[in-house]
Amino acid sequence: MKERLQTLKDEALNQVKTVTDQQALQDIRVHYLGKKGQITEVLKGMGKLSKEERPVIGQLANEVRDVITEAIEEKKSKLEEEAIEKQLQEETVDVTLPGKPTQVGGSHLLMNVIRDIEDLFTSMGYQVAEGPEVETDYYNFEALNLPKGHPARDMQDSFYITEELLMRTHTSPVQARTMNKHEGKGPVKIICPGKVYRRDTDDATHSHQFTQIEGLYVDENVRMSDLKGTLNALAKHLFGEEREIRLRPSFFPFTEPSVEMDISCKVCSGKGCSVCKKTGWIEILGAGLVHPNVLEMAGFDPEKYSGFAFGMGPERIAMLKYGIEDIRHFYTNDVRFLKQFHRV
C-alpha cells in the first residue's frame, strides 16, 4: 500500500507539471483527491491492515494528499498569471491613437425659445400650466365665448374626433380650465405652452401641428396698461432693448378690447424693408383684456375682476429672431439645421 501511495504521488506530480490549462488541472484534482479519487480508493483498503500499520499508512496518505494539493495550487496560480498576461497582450490599447468623436446632442430650437419665454414669465410671478391636447368642444370654444354656430369658429378649422371631442386648436382651454379651478378667486397668473392642431396645408409658413404659448393674468384692477407693459418687456427680452412695440385694434371673441402687437423691424429699425413689407413693423402676437363673458363662465365676477390674455407662436418668434424662412425646418429633423442652434 505504501508503494501504491508513492506511485500515485509521482503520477500526480508529473501530470501537474505538464498540464497547460486550468480545466485539465481541475480534472487531475478530482482524479486523485476527489471523494471517489485514487487516494480515497487506497484508503478504503486500510481495514485489512494491522493496528500497527494503519496509523503509518494514514499519515503517509495525508502527506501524499498535501504534496499533491500544494503542487496543484502552485500550478493553478501560475496558469492564472499566464492567462492574465496573455489577455493583456491580446487586449493591448494604443493610448496614442486619437479618441472616437462623441456626438453631442442639444435642445431643439423651439424648446429653447419656449424655455426662454417661460424663464421670463416665471421671473415675473407666472406659473406654467398644462392641459390635454384632446379637448372638449366646451373648453376649446364655448368657455371662450365661442358658442356653437359662432362664425369665428371657421377661423380655426378643427380636427374633430367626435361631435364633442377635438384636437385643441389653441392653448386657451388651459386658461379656462385653470380659472375654473380657482372657483372665482384671483389672482390667476399663468402661461400655457403646448402643441395645437388645425386643418391647414403645410407650406413655408403654415403647419397642421404647431406650438403656442398663451398668457393669462386675472385679478382686481388689471388694466390695458398692465398688458402693454408686459408685452413691452417680452419684446425687449426676445428681440433686444432697442425694439419698440405698437398695439393695433383687432378682434378675438375671448377678449374685449382686442389688439395685435407689432414690433419695430430689427432689419431696418423701422425705416421699411422687404422683411417688414416696407411698413417698419412686424406682427408678432394677439392679445386683449379678457372678455366679461369668459370671466363669468369661469366663475369670476366681471364687476370685481378683470384680466388680460395674449398668445404667440414660438415658431414665428424663432423664425423672426434667427432668420428662418421655412417653418418645416422645425419638424423635418435635419441634423444639419438642428446643429446650428445647439448652443442658442
What keywords describe this structure?
about 20% strand, two-stranded antiparallel ribbon, BirA Bifunctional Protein, domain 2, about 350 residues, 11 helices, elongated, alpha+beta
3D architecture notes:
Strand 6 (245-252) and strand 7 form a beta hairpin. The chain has 2 domains: 2-88; 109-341, 2-Layer Sandwich (BirA Bifunctional Protein, domain 2). It contains 11 helices and 9 strands. The protein has helices spanning 2-18, 22-33, 38-43, 53-90, 109-123, 137-140, 172-182, 224-239, 292-297, 314-322, 335-338, and strands spanning 127-128, 134-136, 165-167, 188-197, 209-219, 245-252, 255-264, 281-290, 306-312. The strands form 2 sheets. Strands 1-4-5-9-8-7-6 form a 7-stranded mixed beta sheet, with helices on both faces. The chain has a two-stranded antiparallel ribbon with strand order 2-3. By secondary structure, the chain is an alpha+beta fold. The N and C termini lie far apart (89 Å). The model has no long low-confidence stretch (mean pLDDT 87).
Give the SSE map.
Blueprint: H1 2-18, H2 22-33, H3 38-43, H4 53-90, H5 109-123, E1 127-128, E2 134-136, H6 137-140, E3 165-167, H7 172-182, E4 188-197, E5 209-219, H8 224-239, E6 245-252, E7 255-264, E8 281-290, H9 292-297, E9 306-312, H10 314-322, H11 335-338
Parallel strand pairs: 1-4
Antiparallel strand pairs: 2-3, 4-5, 5-9, 6-7, 7-8, 8-9
Helix pairs in contact: 1-4, 2-4, 5-10
